[in-house]
Prior knowledge:
five-stranded mixed sheet, ten-stranded mixed sheet, single chain, 8 helices, alpha+beta
Amino acid sequence: xxxxxxxxxxxxxxxxxxxxxxxxxxxxxxxxxxxxxxxxxxxxxxxxxxxxxxxxxxxxxxxxxxxxxxxxxxxxxxxxxxxxxxxxxxxxxxxxxxxxxxxxxxxxxxxxxxxxxxxxxxxxxxxxxxxxxxxxxxxxxxxxxxxxxxxxxxxxxxxxxxxxxxxxxxxxxxxxxxxxxxxxxxxxxxxxxxxxxxxxxxxxxxxxxxxxxxxxxxxxxxxxxxxxxxxxxxxxxxxxxxxxxxxxxxxxxxxxxxxxxxxxxxxxxxxxxxxxxxxxxxxxxxxxxxxxxxxxxxxxxxxxxxxxxxxxxxxxxxxxxxxxxxxxxxxxxx
Length: 334
């Protein structure tokens, strides 16, 4: 099952469920729920799974929809949000995918350092050695970063806006885990979605200690949220369009078969912090990538369109690139 949040023609909100139907799929409005957050809360209260809640609410539902048409009309929202953006946190991990260290390593190496392990490569090797621990054990912690709160969550078709001082606006095609924290502090996984973990790779290339600066950017998610287990092998393509022409087109891989960490290990090292287990919180936690256009010499510019596709997640995630106007920021003494 996949879920999608939309605006109706009347300007209200609704949730669309997509389920197998014979050799194809059926997509319909889920009665009684305006948000995926509300469905997740209902599942927690009922001590049930999300699919069971949706199926029970949808008995006899007949309002079928055309997902592609909804996306084209601009009525598709991010597949998760929170009425108070401060209670949604966007975070991520890096150096978690097989092959993900090569581009990062090259960014942080000088020509005379070919035989020297960078900190990035050291951390990647730590993941290879102990990122997939035995059941019941904790593995090594991954690289971790903070992107922002729900105010920086961008829906399908909406621009990814880099600040005026940015040196780059680069895509990162990733899988994100979508989580909600129950009233008792228990984190629950709602599902998974595609994400574009938008970053400034040129700034990061100056020094890896600029990683935190490079990540304080918007993040796009969606259009659809996959409920249930993530396939071990997720495959997709990352493209960039400029003036209607493709200037970048490369495959990307995700899923545990292509990762140096298990999802369980990444989740443990995120939610081990008690302030990430506050009741009502929503977490969008990206798992990392190994495919970056900057590693292929692409320099993005305003108006470029990022396009991330994977059959696992249904509809493609597209976002144009924009740059904000310059702002003069000063601090006033009180």
